[in-house]
Amino acid sequence: MNKQTGVAIAVIAAAVIAVGGWFWYAGTAKAPTQAPGIAADYKNGTYLIDGQAVTLVGGRASTPAAPGSASQVVTQYFGNEATGDLNGDGTPDTAFILTQSGGGSGIFYYVVAALKTAGGYQGTNAVLLGDRVAPQTTQISGGEVVANYAERKAGEPMTTQPSVGVSKYLRIVAGTLVEVAHPNQ
User: Fold this and answer.
1) What tens digit of pLDDT does each residue of 123-145 get?
2) Is residue 129 part of a domain?
């Protein structure tokens, strides 16, 4: 075999491998079933908590508290679901409470919304209710989320049971969950 024949065989072999690889990839590649950031179920959605994207799997997420740390930040579905249209598209959305703890004594409570789209649910940012508060009810009325909970009186230690009733009013504004003043406040 001369040098030209060897080069020709190498070129043909490379072409066969490339074409075979393309056919293999085309046969195994799957089109995404949902747009990025869209989840089939709100308990598997992605929510923005203090600027960090947190993706729930079965209502729970766990990430290292710091790089290389054994401590975990655990975010989980608490409940208090409410259903109603939050973004004016005529489709019922869901608001609910998440908790987040990082190994210390604090348990932080947040309200989030999952906006229903044609492909599933789009999570929003989280709005903090507080540390070790006592959630009561969550409602959606007139495109507004009302989160009712109890907190401590000013100056009371964190070991005191929450006893002061509070309501937080939230709306979707330009895709973001924001606290709004209530007319009676």
Assistant:
1) 999 999 999 999 999 999 999 99
2) yes
pTM: 0.78
157/80 same-domain check: yes
Residue 185: inside a domain = no
The predicted pLDDT at position 12 comes to 53
The distance from CA 131 to its chain's CA centroid, rounded to whole angstroms, is 20
Q: Are residues 111 and 166 in the same domain?
A: yes
Predicted pLDDT at 32? 36
Low-confidence ranges of the chain (pLDDT < 70): 1-36, 183-185
Listing DSSP states for the chain in one string gives --HHHHHHHHHHHHHHHHHHHHHHHHHH----SS-TTEESSGGG-EEEETTEEEE-BTTEEEEESSTT-S-EEEEEEEEEEEEE-SSSSSS-EEEEEEEEE-SSS--EEEEEEEEEETTEEEE-B-EEEEES-EEEEEEEETTEEEEEEEEPPTT--TTSPP-EEEEEEEEEETTEEEEE--TT-
What is the domain extent for residue 13? 1-30
